[in-house]
């Protein structure tokens, strides 16, 4: 396939202030070649370098807008605290609004602007990974990267705004309305479809950071995966895995990956299983505020996942029993397979999608207690099941409406530190490194 070589500067021309292009030049990165081949980080000769000018690369298909820092200040009202959405390992995220005057051809829309807290070359590399992966991958279950800013030492990313924030906030925030069962299943299915798209791409991608805070929710709770800073191209040819530094989040990373650094698509499936458990139980993958033996969700829940009688003990109490028992059993059995210690015993993500597909439609949700004022006819017969079903439907609709209608509040949550890095790879399984999370994303190469 003939792929035209482009230079690094032709992708991120604004990084070099002295050579900022004229306004007519590249306000938007447009694919220049007709044949499409997804660019990988490895196609860059020196991706860690912030200032290297001659990184020869082949790029295709990106359609990203390049913003100036000034423009992003305008749309976020100078990153004002009233627009603050949250903060992760990379830095703060602010809401912004692009109006139709900002740029011809760019639709007026709300956006989320992530300001990278650059610390050495690692931050730049993760920024670049995000631009390269998300700039080229488009899917209904991946958050859309609209553009970026690369001006002097500043690195920012501009995403479509996701009105319901992250699954983490929706599931664990103390005063949020509980997510109904069908919404939980919808989220699990959509997120699995996002992963399946990555794993089954012509050039497969391992996501590596699947977790509740990276699943963002649209207004109708459609889930979209975000944060590709740790994504990796999958193994090619006869290779069974790629070797990497262990990076990810405590409680979600697969055990074999932590022990060996060997990364496969099955590492993502393990993390998916952990998120599915979070959806079932309403508990965080790691929760230091619980009694010691309940702190690690996988260890605590695993023995109960295959026993239907015990399952109800671990289901999220906030569901108040309003879930399909058959659906819960199937989802629990699926989670059990996904968190298997042996990667080969885990299902492929495409099989996960097939198993989850029907679960959102199970309606064997138990009939809630409904107090019925006795009437004459009631005194001779019980409430007909049909009535009770109607009552339940009404209750569920009400529940759903309440839920859909609740106002989204973003937590200005101080993030608990949860990243661990390469230094912990081999020694950590001996001293149980999972107990000592890093305070930030792994830095340094
Ligand atoms: N596109 C978006 N739309 C709306 N809110 C967003 C968007 N992207 C991020 N956020 C919010 O910003 C907050 C920080 O997100 P960020 O991805 O930086 O960190 P995180 O996922 O919480 O942690 P980590 O660094 O481990 O990924 C999250 O609480 C999320 O809800
Ligand atoms: Mg994130």
Automatic annotation (TrEMBL):
GO molecular function: ATP binding; protein serine/threonine kinase activity
Keyword Membrane: yes
InterPro entries xrefs: Kinase-like_dom_sf, Plant_Ser_Thr_Prot_Kinase, Prot_kinase_dom, Ser-Thr/Tyr_kinase_cat_dom, Ser/Thr_kinase_AS
BP GO annotations: defense response
Stored SUPFAM superfamilies: Protein kinase-like (PK-like) (SSF56112)
One GO cellular component, as annotated: plasma membrane
Subcellular location: Cell membrane
Domain Protein kinase: 79-360
Keywords attached to this entry: ATP-binding, Cell membrane, Kinase, Membrane, Nucleotide-binding, Plant defense, Serine/threonine-protein kinase, Transferase
CDD domains xref list: STKc_IRAK
Chain spans, region Disordered: 392-420
Record's compositionally biased regions (Basic residues): 392-412
Enzyme Commission identifier(s): 2.7.11.1
Protein name as it appears in the record: non-specific serine/threonine protein kinase
């Amino acid at each position: 396939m003939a792929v035209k070589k482009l230079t690094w500067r032709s992708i991120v021309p604004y990084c070099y202030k002295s050579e900022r292009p004229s306004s007519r030049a590249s306000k938007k990165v447009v694919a220049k070649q007709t044949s499409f081949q997804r660019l990988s980080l490895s196609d860059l000769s020196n991706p860690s370098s912030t200032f290297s000018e001659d990184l020869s690369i082949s790029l295709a298909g990106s359609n990203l807008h390049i913003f100036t820092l000034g423009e992003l200040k305008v749309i976020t009202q100078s990153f004002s605290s009233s627009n603050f959405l949250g903060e992760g390992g990379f830095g703060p995220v602010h809401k912004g609004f692009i109006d139709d005057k900002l740029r011809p051809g760019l639709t007026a829309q709300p956006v989320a602007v992530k300001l990278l807290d650059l610390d050495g070359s690692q931050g730049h590399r993760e920024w670049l990974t995000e631009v390269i992966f998300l700039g080229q991958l488009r899917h209904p279950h991946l958050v859309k990267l609209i553009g970026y800013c690369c001006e002097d030492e500043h690195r920012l990313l501009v995403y479509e705004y996701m009105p319901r924030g992250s699954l983490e906030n929706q599931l664990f925030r103390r005063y949020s309305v509980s997510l109904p069962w069908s919404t939980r299943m919808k989220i699990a299915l959509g997120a699995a479809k996002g992963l399946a798209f990555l794993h089954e791409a012509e050039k497969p991608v391992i996501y590596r950071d699947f977790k509740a805070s990276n699943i963002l929710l649209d207004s109708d709770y459609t889930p979209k995966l975000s944060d590709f800073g740790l994504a990796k191209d999958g193994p090619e040819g006869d290779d069974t895995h790629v070797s990497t530094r262990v990076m990810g989040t405590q409680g979600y990373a697969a055990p074999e990956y932590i022990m060996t650094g060997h990364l496969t698509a099955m590492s993502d499936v393990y993390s998916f299983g952990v998120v599915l458990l979070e959806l079932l139980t309403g508990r965080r993958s790691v929760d230091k505020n619980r009694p010691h033996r309940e702190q690690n969700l996988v260890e605590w829940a695993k023995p109960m996942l295959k026993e239907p009688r015990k399952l109800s003990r671990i289901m999220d109490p906030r569901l108040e029993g309003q879930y399909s028992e058959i659906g819960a059993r199937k989802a629990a059995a699926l989670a059990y397979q996904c968190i298997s210690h042996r990667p080969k015993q885990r299902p492929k993500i495409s099989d996960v999608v097939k198993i989850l597909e029907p679960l959102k439609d199970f309606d064997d949700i138990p009939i809630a207690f409904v107090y019925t004022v006795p009437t004459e006819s009631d005194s001779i017969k019980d409430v007909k099941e049909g009535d009770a079903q109607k009552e339940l439907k009404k209750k569920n609709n009400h529940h759903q409406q309440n839920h859909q209608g609740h106002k989204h509040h973003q937590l200005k949550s101080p993030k608990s530190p949860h990243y661990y890095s390469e230094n912990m790879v081999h020694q950590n399984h001996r001293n149980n490194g999972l107990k000592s999370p890093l305070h930030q994303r792994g830095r340094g190469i």
